[in-house]
Design brief:
Length: 439
Amino acid sequence: MRSLLAILFLAPAALGQTYALRGTLITPDEVIENGVVLVKDGVIEDAGANVTVPDNVNIVETHGFIYPGLIDLHNHLTWNAFPRWSAGTLTRNRYEWQATDSYAARLSGYQAKLRDAGCDLERFAEVKALVWGATSTVGSLPLVCTKGLARNLDYYSGFFGTEAAKEPLQYRVFPLELKESDEKSVRDALAADKPVIAHLCEGVDASAARELRMARAHGFLTKGFIIIHGVPLKDKDFAELGKNGVGFVWSPRSNIELYGATADVASAKKYVTLAIAPDWSPSGSNGMLEEMRYAAIWNDQQFPPVFTNKELVQMATTNPAKLARLDSKTGRLAKGLAADYVIVRASARDPYQALIYAAHDDVLAVAVAGRPLYGDETMMKAINPNARVEPISVCGAAKAVDMSDSDDGKGISFADTKKNLIAAFRMFALPMAGLAECP
Ligand SMILES: [Zn+2]
């Protein structure tokens, strides 16, 4: 019964076989050398130093570091095929850069015209998310093509049955611009103890700061509300958020590139559960690992540093899982959780540092519900001999994807996705971004 339930709740991506991975486990609260993760029907059957592996079960020797899959609580997936963009000057709030001619000329105007390519944009962005270690993300399209690769926590995570658009989590870009009925749905969700992630206080001026007062007046500052950005918030504001059970998502690169400043995370970490996420490719990072590296370099320049390497890894795993109320389902290597994981080459002595500084070619496998969807072909095949691997190049590194489940099982390849997008971008004489920025 257990395995049948697991299949139902992790469908459609769960890998229906039993296998074990050996390596250094970063759970991430502890490091277990020479540990084993036993995976059955897409679920972690056991993980630790003393796992009994049944005789007939294949043990994959990874010689690597094994982490839970990264959880991205701030993204806008369909923008991630667009190249890097800058407003040309620092702005004081999001309304300023959204009003620039260059935003219309390089991003928003074309994003609207590329709507027919929505599923290609979505699929491309999900592969991009996987390349940078994310197994769960938000900011996806409410279309059935969203099913099958990364988990989309705002549309179809695979954790709440097989029907799409039944997720408890809401992802709201601008909650202060909502219609009254939508606003009510945010308050109802919070009253029912469901998480709502929203952009708030994005900028450095008084109008950005004012959004906290507006959110308070709307009755949003309550348990389950999760604020993205919060650049101008002060220590006393974070104290209030912490007291009310409000969470926080930090996106430093996008903040610093657009506004020249980012949130006071030294204050934030005293009071609130803090997650890190890349925002989007144009002004943020290409994905989770890249944003973690950006944060680590920023952190090294602070006196004293705000975070340890371990805390940065927790901000990409256990903390976002807790904020999204998915900590009993993903975000740790622990018995009973989904087998969402990332395997990275053991390149540094400190496994937390190895993840933060992992380059795209250090990622050996990224698996959702036990099924490796991205990585090195040999590792993917060792884990899943039936994987339909499609070779791809990431800045010259030979990697592979398994697109068998893309578009709700239609299995549209990455090559076709890219071909469609290149044709669509060419129509508008636009350059297209890659999965990574190559040196
Ligand atoms: Zn955003």
